[in-house]
Amino acid sequence: MSAMKIAAAACVLLIGGPLFAQEWIRYQNLEDRFAVSAPGEPTIEKTKWKSEYDSMFPATIYRWQQGPNRYAATVVDYSDSEAIYMANPHSADFQAPMYWQIDILGSIQYAAAQYRQKPGIKVTFDAFHYINFVTGHELQLTNADQSRTYVGIYLHENRLYVFDATVAKGMPPPLIFQQSPEFLDADGNAIRYRTYYFNRVPEPRLGGRGARGAGAPAGTGPQGAPPGGGGPIQRGGPPQRNQ
Known about the structure:
Blueprint: H1 3-22, E1 25-29, E2 34-38, E3 43-50, E4 56-66, E5 69-77, H2 81-87, H3 99-105, H4 107-116, E6 122-131, E7 134-142, E8 148-156, E9 159-167, H5 175-178, E10 182-183
Antiparallel strand pairs: 1-2, 2-10, 3-4, 4-5, 5-9, 6-7, 7-8, 8-9
Helix pairs in contact: 2-3
């Protein structure tokens, strides 16, 4: 590349960069307790999230579009997992009370699997991640059209957060969006932990149906789990469920 072309490219970066960033704001949402740097106000969609064990959880998707680039934050409320799971019919293999807890504990891994299984994608990064000491997982994907998707998945106070940014081929990584998520308290203050945060599932609230000793088979572990901490889950394939 000639010196003139390099200089011209530098000018585009210097001029285009600030103009691109000027449209961005710190978007804050008290209902779902998060903040993120994003290109303006989002469109908001209330929806349902189907969990690993076929429970339908309330979810909200916040979407932004800037040119060819797309950004989204999906928040899934797992706080009523026990009641939602118990209200659904399940096959004999998946009636143990522990499965509502596994739905929460495995939610990060389950969400990540939905991205890995998309057709035509190549996973270029797939590893543990944390932001503000809230633990989670990060994925980077190259799509069939050569756009790239960057995903951060976190579980905080029984809410699952999926931050998803897709940039067009040749565009720089969406670092502003990817590295800016914050988790908020009830007053809107950013939560800062001093060490790594790992989500704790809620205490059982449905009496005998949520605890060992009332309706759980003999020999089961805590929350009706099979002895040894295992279970009939086969991670290599989908579990069998009632249709």
